[in-house]
Design goal:
By secondary structure, the chain is mostly helical. It has 2 domains: about 1-160, no CATH class; about 160-235, no CATH class. Helix content is about 50%, strand content about 10%. The protein has 8 helices and 3 strands. The protein is globular, with a radius of gyration of 21 Å.
Length: about 240
């Protein structure tokens, strides 16, 4: 009887180790500032990761991630995508509140969902989830960690670290669709960032970032040729 109990305990321990990962070490959740414009709101209490992965949740998160990516292909109708983004955010937040997310892959999917959120708290939550996925050795986690950090930094009025957010050209059109004005927004980047920093998180090198940005600027100026270009700071 004792021997059987020891074997059973060992088996359960092995199963637990196989399914654990996300909460083997408790997550140190950051403070999410109160923000009445942030929907869904991210609470400062009640978020937790699970210890036992389930096929149902893994399949659910895969479907959510696939839908998130599918919505960003081709010509995007944001009026239709935004409500779907919000619905996905609410589902993932509920999974976090009930401790259902466990694996690194699930956390990466959740990070992508909140990377496409609408407020700094969403981006901060995405970054925390990506950081945990990195610790679990999850493929793709480093890239989304950098992307979420850049988006959070910019939206809290700080320079981005990794240069993941390219400059933006906004075209102001009249009712007929004619471009009346172009607004150029250069997004600031931390001047201390090195190629080693970028390589560590699977990002473009400094020279590649410059080449990408120059290409975007050149293409946008061609589109806006003959139209006033109004440069603006992001913050």
């Amino acid at each position: 009887m004792i021997l059987r109990s020891v074997k059973l305990f060992t088996l359960l321990a092995l199963l637990g180790a196989a399914n654990a990962g996300a909460s083997a070490t408790p997550v140190k959740w950051p403070n999410f500032p109160a923000d009445s414009t942030c929907t869904p709101a991210i609470p400062n209490n009640g978020l937790r990761l699970g210890t036992q992965a389930t096929p149902a949740v893994s399949a659910q998160m895969k479907a959510i991630f696939d839908a998130d990516q599918e919505d960003r292909q081709g010509n995007i109708d944001w009026a239709k995508v935004k409500p779907r983004d919000l619905a996905r955010e609410k589902i993932v937040l509920d999974l976090l509140k009930t401790g259902k997310l466990v694996t690194g892959k699930e956390l990466v999917g959740a990070a992508y969902v909140f990377q496409h959120g609408s407020c700094p708290n969403h981006f901060l939550l995405a970054n925390v989830l990506a950081e945990r996925a990195i610790k679990l050795g999850t493929q793709g986690a480093k890239w989304i960690y950098a992307a979420t950090l850049d988006r959070w930094l910019l939206n809290t009025r700080k320079p981005q670290k990794f240069g993941g957010e390219p400059p933006a050209f906004v075209q102001v059109r009249d009712k007929s669709g004619k471009i009346m004005q172009c607004i150029f927004i250069q997004l600031p980047m931390d001047s201390t960032t090195t190629d080693a920093d970028l390589k560590k998180y699977d990002q473009l090198s400094l020279s590649e970032i410059k080449k990408r940005n120059d290409g975007i600027i050149k293409e946008s100026k061609a589109i806006c040729k003959g139209v006033p270009i109004n440069p603006q700071k992001f913050y």
